[in-house]
Amino acid sequence: MQAQPLCRSARSSAAVIAVVALLAVAGVAVYAVVSIARETPAEEGARKGATGPTASETLLRVDPLITEGKGSEAVAVLLPAIEAYPQDQELRLALARAYSLQKEWLKSSAAYEAALLLGKETAALHAEAGTVANAAGKVELAIERYGRAQDLDPKNPIHPLYLGMVQIKAGKEREAMTSLLTATVLNPELAAAWGSMGELELRANHLDLALQHLAKARAIEPESFKWRLAEAKTHKRRNEPGKALDLLVNLPNDKRYSKEAVQVIADSLAMMKQVEGRAEFLRLAKAHAEGNGDAATVELITTVLAPATGG
Q1: Which of the two residues, 41 and 153, has the higher pLDDT score?
Q2: 308 and 270 in contact (C-beta within 8 Å)?
Q3: For 153-206, where are the alpha helices, taking DSSP H only?
Q4: Closest CA to 230 of 267, 261, 204, 273
Q5: Over the range 243-258, which residues count as b (16 or more CB within 10 Å of their CB) and which as e?
Q6: What is the pLDDT at residue 34?
C-alpha cells in the first residue's frame, strides 16, 4: 500500500515556527497556529479537474521554503495555486506567513483577513492575524482580532494582555486598563500587564497606584530597564528626585545614557540644585551619545537640557 501524505498540521509546523520566530524578532506578540482540516488530495484533484498540482502538493513544496526563510519563492508558488483554489484556507495562511517573512506586513495582513473568511476560525489564528495587523500599523484591526481571540479562548491571559497593549497604542486607555487587569487576574505573574498598568496610572497622575503596579512588575522582572525607568519617572513626578536617581545612576552606560534616562537624571539633578553635577553628567552623556551615533540624545542635550542651565 502506498504511504499516505503527512497531514497538513504536521507538515506545516516547521513553517509556522519559522514565521513565529520572525515575529518575535520583530518585537510583536506571537502565537501558535492551529492547522485547519481539509479535503484529501484526491478530492482536490477531482474538484479541480486539471493537471496542475493540488493544494496539498503546493503546500508540500512551500512549507520547506517558508521554513528556510525563502518568502519570495514561496509567494511565487502560492499565488497561482490560490488562483486555482481560491477557497483553500491553508494556502492563504501560507501566503500570509510568506509575506511576513519578507516583512510585507500589509500584504500579510490582507492574506490573513482573506483566510479568516474561509474554513474554521480559532483563537490562535485570530491572534496571529492581530499580531500582523499591529505590525502593519492597522491598530483597530489588531484590536478586533485580539478581542475575537479572547472571546474564543477566554482563559488565556495572553489575549487580554496584547489586546491591552494595542488599546494603549490606539489611545484607548480606559479599555486597556480593563484588558490588562483581566490578564493579571488570569495570570498574576505577567510583569508586562502590571508594568503597563503602572505606566497608565503614571499618565493619569495616579502616582501611588503607579508605584504599586510597577513594584509588582519589578518584583517579577527585576532586571527590566523599562519598569525601573517608569518607577524613576514616577518618583520624579512625586518630587522625590533622590529616589529617581538611585534607580538610574548606577546602571550600565547604555541604560544610564539612554535618551529617556538622561532626561530623568538631568531633571532630578536640577530639582536637587546640583548644578555642577548636572553639567558633568550632561557632558558625559553627550560624549557617550556622540560615540555611539545616538543623534536623538545629542539633540536633547544640546537643544533642551544644556541650555536650561546655560551649559
Answers
A1: 153
A2: yes
A3: 158-169, 173-186, 191-203
A4: 261
A5: bbbebbeebeeeebbb
A6: 41
